[in-house]
């Protein structure tokens, strides 16, 4: 079974609605560890497939797609675009427009 922090992170990510994004840092803060942004990346890497997480709805603090490979970056940009999120040529998402702000978590 996952640790409590990991369970909270998974629950938060599963609730990000289509057409919205959250940042690694905001997820960490909401899950109870404001300094745990890097842990969010590890959780996404290890549990996205198993937990069927909408991993593509997570971006960095400035709204950038920051995955390791160009293929992964392109896939994330395509998935976001399919939900109506504009991703510019620099693989940037406008957080003022797309950040999920009306969060009412059920964890």
Q: What CATH architecture do you see?
A: Orthogonal Bundle
- In which order are the strands of the major sheet placed? 1-2
How does the major sheet shape up?
A: 2 strands, parallel
Topology order in helix (H) and strand (E) letters: HEHHEHH
By DSSP (H or I, 4+ residues per run), the number of helices equals 5
Question: How would you describe the overall organization of this protein?
Answer:
With 107 residues, the protein is mainly alpha-helical. The chain has a single domain, classed as Arc Repressor Mutant, subunit A (Orthogonal Bundle), CATH 1.10.10. Helix content is 48%, strand content 4%. It is built from five helices and two strands, in the order H-E-H-H-E-H-H. The protein has a two-stranded parallel sheet. Helix 2 packs across helix 3 (37-51). It starts with a helix and ends in a 9-residue tail after the last helix.
